[in-house]
Amino acid sequence: MTQEKFTFLRHDMDKDTTISTSLEEAISKVSGSTNEIEPLDAFTVNPTLEIIGGEGKLDFFLVFRHPETNEIEARRATPEELIALKVISGDLDPVEASEEAGCKPGIIDRAIWSAVESGVIFAPRPRLVREPFTYPEGAYTEGLLATRVFSLQWHITQVCDLHCKHCYDRSDRVPLTLERAQFVLEDLRSFCHKSGVRGHVCFSGGNPFLHPDFVEIYRLASDMGFMTSILGNPVPRHWVEEIIEIQMPNYYQVSLEGLAATNDSIRGEGHFDRTLKFLALLNELGVESSVMLTLTSMNIHEVLPLGRVLDDYTESFTFNRLSAVGEGARLALPSKAEFLDFLSKYVDSYHEIRCLYYKDNLLNPILYERGEEPFDGCTGFGCGAAFNFVALLSDGEVHACRKFPSLLGNIFEGGLEEIYFSNLARRFRSRPLECRSCVLSPSCGGCLASSMTFNRDIFKERDPFCPFGDKD
To answer: How far, in Å, are 97, 173, 180, 325 from residue 165 at the CA level?
Structure first.
């Protein structure tokens, strides 16, 4: 802690000399301590933490060694940190603590994860880890073998106000009831709590806003402390304002498939202009936006021009390759040579077009061949199918990835924990055999949906578009 910060803190407390003296003693004590402890199976208070104040004093001050920077911090405690410390140090059940305090469980959970972020609380070692196998020498694995956040991509309805030419699934499914939605969220909360991870619910469809109970389901997710986001279509302003009032989404993702003519031929007349206006609305409301494009042979040459347009509308624009399932089977992917040439141009334009975002795992071989450090891959862990996310459909089907049929089980029959730790789920997240000897395997793994499109064995063969492969 710098002398300037220390002086500022002393000014905060100059009316209470007892606290000032205690602060100096606490800093001296923490200076000689270490926060290195064996990984635990439960949330734990930072062992270096000293708390100053209480007993009638209005403020509490915290002195501790931060686990990441290893530097000493001394500052006033936030209300969230005090809540977390009370629950964790008292070994209280968060749900029971919320009932006693007369608040929603989400308030307790958010406080605990906020305290983890600030370094006051240590999170348990996560149970969601990559299946063990030997990575080649030089493989970049740091931060890629275990996840702290688990995302449920929840397709709560099949109902949609669009009929896109590449839609993966227009089938009829059993509608999701509010009662079953409550079950899902409680099961997800239990799974995340046992696994030492934070839960993120990504609402999708169809159009999630067209579910008759969407607002109430969104409220339930917020009440349970989950991060929330939306994959959807442009909707009226008051619909967005209603969910913001409940909880600001982490992001709202919409889709465009090229410039106006190409996009509207796929998503419907006028969709392009409506989407740009909606992106401007999200910006006005303070909602972080992103734009996704499904890459085909028809729109590959419009990606970068569209990126230049979107620079004025969003912070994030990227693409997924077409998965030729459902109605998408009528469209075509570019050739391998054309795709790899496009990836090279995409990397060239990355710093020129501000909103471009790296997502496709096969950008990593391009970066590697240029001597640049790889990024963390499609979901932050290369292919994250059945690892840091699963897709849940309205009838309870759980899939490793929504882009292709990858059924793992049904949440109403087995629950997430049983499904996630099944042998089948392990196979999906273990990388194809041909990828395991690759130095980029932890941050890549290709795209299973792409392999399936070309009738490859997704558990053995690499992505057919991989530049390291010997198959065209």
So the answer is: 50, 20, 31, 11
Residue owning tokens 């793994």: 445
As a whole number of angstroms, the distance between CA 90 and CA 42 comes to 13
Per-residue pLDDT tens digits for 247-289: 999 999 999 999 999 999 999 999 999 999 999 999 999 999 9
SS percent in the chain: helix, strand, coil, step 5: 40, 15, 45
Residues in the chain: 472
User: Hunting for tokens 């077409």 — which residue is that?
Assistant: 322
149-155 sheet: strands from edge to edge: 317-321, 289-295, 252-255, 227-231, 198-204, 149-155, 389-393, 397-399, 407-410
Mark out the alpha helices in 260-377 (DSSP H runs): 260-267, 271-285, 303-310, 336-349, 363-369
58's tokens: 């209005």
113-124 confidence digits (pLDDT tens)? 999 999 999 999
H or E element in which residue 76 lies: strand 72-76
Q: Determine contact, residues 108/98, Cβ cutoff 8 Å.
A: yes
Alpha carbons 74 and 61: distance in angstroms, whole number: 7
Note if the pTM is more than 0.85: yes
Dihedral of the CA atoms 306, 308, 310, 312 (nearest 10)?
-160
Bridge-based pairing of strands 44-45 and 198-204 is unpaired
